[in-house]
């Protein structure tokens, strides 16, 4: 009898231990973990696209949750720049560009680049070939659909004159989608990203020519980049490190699995964001090959890129301060950091 009681006590003890384990590690444990997640917001620079894929991958695969973060990607809103949202404390990280970082710092609203999304500048100018444009020299006297930023004129002047032109093009600020304006012949050319508009144009069967900025004397630079405010960097370095660790995994996945990453981007965004899914896959395949050079770590930034192009902007008079006067000097080292790419 005593032996039976002893066995019963041992059995009940085992059941109790197993029960405690599952209570701590299953549903209640997961709920407790969820309650400990730290809210973290990301603001985009435009509507969702393949520049952003790595973050959507990390979100879908719960890699942010694994780092203890409850990440929300805020939709793009016209008139609410990432830089202003960051410095006003309404977002933790944003998507920006070298131009936006330099301009924001010069205007007294400093932000810092914490990672390069794409290793090299993949932007340039795309034109209709039926406008008689074969080289940048032929952009003389053609109609450019612009966005009204100070740097556009400097870049175009450099590209056209490097190719032997005078740089005497005409410009109009476009009030419709740039691609639509090009298709309807309202403009002859505009500034594009090779991995988006050029892929799109060729998929649509448009006869276009593309002039990469890097081939015509423009210093290499990072665009887009992930940015944060100096206050965020000072007060929340651990959170930024966790965010970047998961984000890096997301982009690495996209590098290795472009088609799957494109499917994740489509699934993670509102239903009608991408009417043409094949186009998204084509764009992703292009960018997955350009996120980082072979043998390098995604996101790392080099001093040269953050000195040469910002200096080009200053020399061109394309950077103005709070007093609306051209800025001649900036602390280039303060524009970027690699400290969260560990």
Estimate the strand proportion.
5-15%
Widest β-sheet, arrangement of strands: 2-1-3-10-4
CATH topology descriptor of the largest domain: D-Maltodextrin-Binding Protein, domain 2
The end-to-end distance, rounded to whole angstroms, is 63 Å
Stretches where pLDDT falls below 50 for ≥5 residues?
Answer: 4-24, 26-33
What portion of residues is helical? 40-55%
Kindly provide the name of the CATH class of the largest domain.
Alpha Beta
For CATH, the homologous superfamily of the largest domain is named as Periplasmic binding protein-like II
Please tally the β strands and state the result.
Answer: 10
How many domain modules?
A: 2
Give the C-alpha Rg: 25 Å
Mean pLDDT: 90
The secondary structure category is: alpha/beta
Q: How does the major sheet shape up?
A: 5 strands, mixed
């Amino acid at each position: 009898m005593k032996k039976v009681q002893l066995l019963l006590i041992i059995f009940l003890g085992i059941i109790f231990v197993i029960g405690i384990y599952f209570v701590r590690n299953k549903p209640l444990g997961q709920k407790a973990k969820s309650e400990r997640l730290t809210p973290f917001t990301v603001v985009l620079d435009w509507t969702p696209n393949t520049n952003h894929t790595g973050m959507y991958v990390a979100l879908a695969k719960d890699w942010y949750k694994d780092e203890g973060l409850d990440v929300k990607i805020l939709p793009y809103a016209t008139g609410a720049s990432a830089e202003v949202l960051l410095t006003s404390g309404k977002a933790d990280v944003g998507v920006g560009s070298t131009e936006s970082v330099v301009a924001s710092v010069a205007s007294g609203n400093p932000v810092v680049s914490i990672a390069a999304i794409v290793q090299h500048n993949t932007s340039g100018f795309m034109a209709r070939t039926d406008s008689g444009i074969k080289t940048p020299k032929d952009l003389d006297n053609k109609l450019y659909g612009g966005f009204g930023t100070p740097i556009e004129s400097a870049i175009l002047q450099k590209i056209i004159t490097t190719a032997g032109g005078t740089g005497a093009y005409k410009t109009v600020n476009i009030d419709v989608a740039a691609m639509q304006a090009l298709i309807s012949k309202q403009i002859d050319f505009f500034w594009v990203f090779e991995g988006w508009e050029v892929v799109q144009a060729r998929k649509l069967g448009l006869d276009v020519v593309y002039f990469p900025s890097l081939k015509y004397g423009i210093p290499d630079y990072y665009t887009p980049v992930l940015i944060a405010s100096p206050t965020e960097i000072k007060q929340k370095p651990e959170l930024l490190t966790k965010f970047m660790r998961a984000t890096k995994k997301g982009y690495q996945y996209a590098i290795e699995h472009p088609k799957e990453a494109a499917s994740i981007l489509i699934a993670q965004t509102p239903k009608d964001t991408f009417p043409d899914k094949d186009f998204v896959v084509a764009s992703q395949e292009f960018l997955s090959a350009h996120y980082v050079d072979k043998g390098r770590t995604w996101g790392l930034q080099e001093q040269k890129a953050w000195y040469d192009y910002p200096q080009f902007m200053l020399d061109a008079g394309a950077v103005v301060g709070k007093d609306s006067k051209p800025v001649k000097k900036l602390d280039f080292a303060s524009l970027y950091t690699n400290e969260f790419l560990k």
